[in-house]
Amino acid sequence: MASSAASLYLDPQIRDWVLFPITLVMILVGVLRHYVVLLLQSPPKQLPKAAIREQKALARSQILRATASFSPIPPTYYHAISKHLSDAFESGIYLKDGPPQGDAPTTPANPLTDPAAMDGMMSGMKTQMVMMVPQMVIMGWITFFFQGFVLIKLPFPLTLGFKSMLQRGIETQDMDVRWVSSLSWYFLNFFGLNGLYRLLLGGDNAADASQTMTASPFAAAGAAPGQPQDYSKLFKAEREHLELAEGQYAWIGDGVEDRVLRRHRRA
Amino acid sequence: MSLASALETLATYRASNTRASQDVLEKGSLILKSGAASNLGDDSWAFLEQLALAALDVGQIDIADQCLQKLTEKFPGSPRVEILRGIRMEATEAPQTVLHYYNELLDANSANAAAWKRRISVTRRMGRVEKTIDDLSQFLDTFYTDLEGWLELADIYSSCNQYTSALQALSHALLLAPQNPFTALQFAETAYSAGDLPLALKTFLIVVDMGEKDLPSVQDLPPTGLSVRAWYGVKLCARQIIAHPSTTSSASNTAVPKSIRQIDEVATERLLVHYSGRGNDRSEKRVLQSWLAG
């Protein structure tokens, strides 16, 4: 092995005209992509008042429930609030479009016909395009011009298992695993530059490949806040949670006099 | 005062929401004159906003105008700057004009919480209490988690002697900040004003309990700060309940504790302990003793 490694010498021109350019181009494209994504991002959508009210209605009951077993408020007030919320959820006055009328269709709107949902999906797609297109171009550039180039020799020995990772595009059995091919150098950079981007552009930069590559454009749209949710169903479920919390309810003032007296050794 | 330390103080004020307007103005105008604000980077905009608010607070409208000018140039159409402009208008313009301005902002975006809150505060200042309560209730129905809003509502109700409604508003505030003894104390005092003595007693005891819970040994320590006020409340309620046990009623059906006499004793003792460690000045203690006796 040592003899075959020693018999291979790389032209310094490969270092100057292939290795460095690939690395530099990838870094610059990453930085550029970050700024393009920033430009493409549409401003966050303004929700109308009624929609916010609908969203926050659930939070109201969650806040009430959160402290139910050591509630800071006395029983009359707790039960009044709990009953009010429960009634409101049943009649649906917190729904964005007001209480449902009779037998109106209750199927959720198709996200593809709703322009608001479409916007969210489109922004996800745009980000994906900015992500994918430059990577494909760079990869095409490397395979077209530098197919089969050996670029660099790693300064440490590796086992044969790394051969497919480090010598992609070179089908030789005998070459030492320490030699890295051009295509493999591209992949190493692709996944390895995220740390550098984080240094250059800050924590939540858009150049970071690891986050965006894992998410498909449609999955990103699904998680967007604009996605339609059937609040009347959520409200029904929340009513049951409220009833459960009612059973757990205890006022923090129950027995507080005993706690204080015990601390002052009077009980 | 060096520039660096002035900047640092201002940043601390911003982080802790301290309203030390005079101090902010003195340090801020120093920085503004020296032109160091441009070296701050993105922090400089927050600094300008802080200085503008402080200047308005103190009445230095020209400085506020300078800041506002810079901010408008940098962020045209920013909702935050628009609110700042509104606050600037409140300082000099007629309330109707400002109200109109806020109405326009809300027409453009009905969910602009900051403009809505400003509008409520302007209506309150104009003395239109009913309209304020209406508007504020609607606001809180939409933005339930606004703690300041609930406290403000309680304050408005209290100022109209509507203590029961104030208690309802405060109970929401308590839900939102269950760990804050000041809210609990306000609840207790409002309950006392509403005439619900057992509820007030219980809540005063909750405040005491909150303050003592984490102390290693309460017996040796005199009560301090909030606890003193709470103990006064306990004493006040306990004394009246003991004096008129039959007429004590509770709108919230809170039971009078059985150990009411021990509570009364402990409250007396704690109050005396608080004033006993105060050196030669005996007059405070004498006043307290005569109150306790009376």
UniProtKB/TrEMBL annotation, chain A:
Keyword Transmembrane: yes
Alphabetically ordered keywords of this record: Membrane, Transmembrane
Keyword Membrane annotated: yes
Domain of life assignment: Eukaryota
Name this protein carries in UniProt: Transmembrane protein
Native organism: Pluteus cervinus
Automatic annotation (TrEMBL), chain B:
Highest taxon of the lineage: Eukaryota
Stated name of the protein: Tetratricopeptide repeat domain 35
Lineage start: Eukaryota, Fungi, Dikarya, Basidiomycota, Agaricomycotina
